[in-house]
Design a protein that fits this description.
165 residues, alpha+beta, Aminopeptidase, 7-stranded mixed β-sheet
Length: 165
Amino acid sequence: MSASIEDAVSASSVLSFRTMHSDDLKQVMDIEVQAYTHPWTIGIFRDCVRGHRCWVAMQDEAIVGYAVLMMAPGESHVLNLCVRPDQHRKGIGRELLRLLMQKSEQSGVDMILLEVRRSNQSAIDLYQSEGFHELGVRKAYYPAENGREDAIILARYLGEAGFSD
């Protein structure tokens, strides 16, 4: 864990990560519906737990964030990265993202990709601060309040960053 996370987390709280399990899905869904106007369904999460790599961020035995990563030859794709809204701006999302980059690199992946809503500037800022660059746009990718919203496609090449221990 980086010093910035340790500084951001209260002295009584320790941030840790572990693999997501089916038993976690109630807490994950509680966060998902708080965080998104168009949340994933529990069925999507069940499929992800069975078929992709999923982690939760734990603090005081409670899930405060989670991430879902799809692996393919040579690349990984961040499908979902979310932090409980009342825990935003504490470095949890950054640590989850770094975990995904580290796990990807350890699996021999060269590049990590993701989509982010064009309107989600705080997430875009986070990804860019971690070395992600815009590859393109997926028009009308996300459901939105009044129709559809574009997604920005971001990517980061791994290997030179030194995420492996």
